[in-house]
Amino acid sequence: MKDNVLHIQGVSVEQLATACQTPLYIYDENKITEKLSRFHELFQSDTFKTEVLYASKAFSCKAMVELVAQYGLSLDVVSGGELYTAKQAGFPMERVYFHGNNKSYDEIMMALDYGVGTIIVDNAMECDMLVKAVKRSGRSIKTMLRVNPGVEAHTHKYIVTAHLDSKFGISITKKKEIAAMIHTLTSVAEITFLGYHSHIGSQIFDKQAYVAEIEKLMQFTKEMQTEYDIHISALNLGGGFAALYTNADHPIPLQDVCHTILDTCKKENAKQQLNIEKIMIEPGRSIVAEAGSTLYRVGYQKQTEHKKYIFVDGGMSDNIRPALYQAEYACDIANRMQEDKTETVTIAGKCCESGDILIENAKLPKVSQNDLLIIYTTGAYGYSMASNYNKLGRPAVVFVKDGHARVVIKKESYENMLDLECNEVINV
């Protein structure tokens, strides 16, 4: 902070607002690289090979993917677009894992043509499609199968992913169907089956959720080995590591969660007399969320019967999470950081939806028009879930580091939004 103005990595947010306009996503690059480095250092074992995959759905662009490659992590992608971004960023394709519950044939062929290392198979129909694609392409591929252990982390219902009726994966209770899928995969010489993948939710604050996941998966692995002679070499335990959004959040210290996962894997691997060689995790949010903030300019204010509204020049078009998940955030007036917070206000966006509320009951100093309001911990699922609702252009993304700033994604102009509009006659 300098002269009552927030600085990020030595760069004034006032200067960033002038140079790049608002709304603006600002990432502290050093915070990103620190998290990448910490995961790489802490997720190490004397018992297993280990691999950390960055879940790029949290925030994907070429600059981010380049950092992931630089710090030695692998990459989790869930669409052709994320895969294309990785390719254009020069990411090593053998370190890419392709997820998703409804991969198209074209996406599967794209992954094979690019030389993707591993495809995570979600369901029986995809299994059959992958076999056809591999036979057609002649390419080799490693595979894992996504399974649901029935462990439900205590998060919002939209981000719980491993319950028995989840849209993702197949329940571990369906052992016969799972065995049939694995047989289908291993019947093709070019396909190598590594093991199982699971993901139990997001914003997990209790490390016992991971313990329960591992215990269930290891027991299931033993049953599949005993009943169907299916042996595996790897387990991917997904992500879900929490980020700090407000003072009410208490994320598990990274060292603790890594130790808990690896220690439990070692214990259960021995208990079930398995020979698992490799353990993987997939952090996304926990790497980028706290590194990112969104800067807005304050517009009008309005007093209703029970609320004082502060309107900003963005909203659900650049941060859908409050409307979608009732996600909570913290904020400040970035150009008056040291003033006493004397008012309780509601921060609302400019989109034409009553649900376009970014923060309820925010404590702030008396707010004036043209003040800069910053909302913290928007680095995950802010830009990646942004839309053009109301024909609002997506904001620019800036990385700041050691007193310098660089634009890594340009602000979307009105012209950009119309680039794909046309009047082409098609022959049908």
UniProtKB/TrEMBL annotation:
Residues 30-289 form the Orn/DAP/Arg decarboxylase 2 N-terminal domain. It catalyses: meso-2,6-diaminopimelate + H(+) = L-lysine + CO2. The modification N6-(pyridoxal phosphate)lysine is found at residue 57. Its EC number is 4.1.1.20. Residues 25-379 form the Orn/DAP/Arg decarboxylase 2 C-terminal domain. PANTHER family: DIAMINOPIMELATE DECARBOXYLASE (PTHR43727), GROUP IV DECARBOXYLASE (PTHR43727:SF2). This is Diaminopimelate decarboxylase. It comes from Longicatena caecimuris.
